[in-house]
Write a structure and sequence with these properties.
Blueprint: E1 2-5, E2 8-16, E3 19-20, H1 23-48, H2 54-79, E4 87-88, E5 90-96, E6 99-105, E7 109-114, E8 117-120, H3 127-133, H4 139-144, E9 163-168, E10 174-178, H5 180-183, H6 188-196, H7 201-207
Antiparallel strand pairs: 1-2, 2-5, 3-4, 5-6, 6-9, 7-8, 7-10
Helix pairs in contact: 1-2
Amino acid sequence: TGIPLEEERVASLMMVADGVGGGLMGERASRMALQVATQYIVESARCFYGAEEAGLSLGKALEEGAKRCNDVIQERAAADPDSAGMATTLTLLVAVWPWIYLLQVGDSRYYNFHNGVLRQITRDQTVAQELADQGLLPRDLALKSPLTHVLSSSIGGQQTAPVVTRIPSNWGDVHLLCSDGLTRHVSDARLAERLGAMKNAKQVAEQL
């Protein structure tokens, strides 16, 4: 979606949220995160567009947006026993030329595909990844561990540790945001193969 300001597009916003907590709770949490994040980022883009320190301000706005999403979901869970335990991942991209800003919470992912090379930019926030980063679990075992499905950070969960990254934007970039429903079953090599042969976004999304 474009974020309008005085009839002009100033940024592009892309998000994926994968709810956890079972059934309708996860669905409700992911929907709330997308709604709150969209509203907050639109407001932030209007405030920070054209400011000299836009990059720094927008990065802080993304962190604050994640915390606001977290608070809204926790408040809902506290007020409704049927919503207890709901949470969600949130991977969010804001493209403001010439930069891409990424917000990461959980294990949904952002991949960048450019000149035939696929790169996973986000880092999974899972217990297995944390143990591997600390050298407590070999990386080859981490990929097969049941702990790859246990989040160390989520929106609405016990711990929320939003990570914001800024990378240069390039013409010809292909952006892929996805949940572990894709990456659990499809290898990076297969992702690169499909993206390299893509004719349009709809076609490659359906294939993946």
